[in-house]
Structures are given as C-alpha cells and as structure tokens.
C-alpha cells in the first residue's frame, strides 16, 4: 500500500466521522418534549427582601477593599485619620 493511498484513506476516515457525529447531535437536539420550569431559584423568596439582601451583599463586597485600603493608609500614618 503506497503512502499516498494510506494518507487518502486516513483523510477519508476522518472526513466521514464528523458527519455521523452531526447526525447524532441533530437527533438529540429536538425541540419537542422540552421541560420549562416555572421557578428558576431553588427556594421561595420575596422579591423585595431578595433585592435588599442582594444589594446589601454586593455593597458589602464592593466596599471591603476600600475600607481595608483606608485602614492600611491610616495605620501607616501616611494619611489623615478617618473621622
């Protein structure tokens, strides 16, 4: 078997494989029998309390580096004392 024939056989094998894979993907990508969930959170919540808790969580997380930097500057004596 010549080298050219072997390389063309390998090329033919690799070009056929993706088509079989695509057929399987199309078969399992059906839009029928889909389940739509009414609730996206795994817990019940009040929108107002969730919004307040989420805002508090984000504000706290965002402010920690600024508080730490202010404290470190104050501790080193390089800045004015916080009032």
**How many strand elements?**
0
What is the rounded distance between the termini? 87 Å
Please give the largest β-sheet.
none
What amount of the residues lies in strands?
A: under 5%
- What's the mean pLDDT score? 75
Structural class: mainly alpha
What share of residues is helical?
55-70%
- Provide the number of structural domains: 1
The rounded Rg comes to 31 Å
Number of continuous helical runs = 2
Order of helices and strands: HH
Describe the overall structure.
The chain is mostly helical and 83 residues long. It has one domain (3-76). It has two helices and no strands. The longest helix is centred in the last third of the chain and has 30 residues, at 47-76. The protein is flat. The N and C termini lie far apart (87 Å).
Features:
mitochondrion inner membrane; 2 helices; single chain; flat; mainly alpha; 83 residues
List the helices and strands and how they pair.
Layout: H1 3-28, H2 47-76
State the gist of this model.
Pathway: Energy metabolism; oxidative phosphorylation. The protein has one domain (3-76). It is built from 2 helices and no strands.
């Amino acid at each position: 078997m010549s080298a050219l024939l072997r390389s063309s056989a390998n090329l033919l094998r690799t070009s056929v494989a993706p088509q079989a894979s695509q057929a399987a993907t199309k078969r399992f990508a059906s839009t029928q029998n889909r389940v739509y969930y009414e609730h996206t959170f795994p817990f019940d919540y009040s929108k107002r309390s969730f919004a307040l808790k989420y805002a508090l969580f984000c504000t706290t997380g965002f402010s920690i580096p600024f508080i730490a930097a202010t404290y470190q500057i104050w501790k080193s004596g390089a800045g004015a004392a916080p009032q």
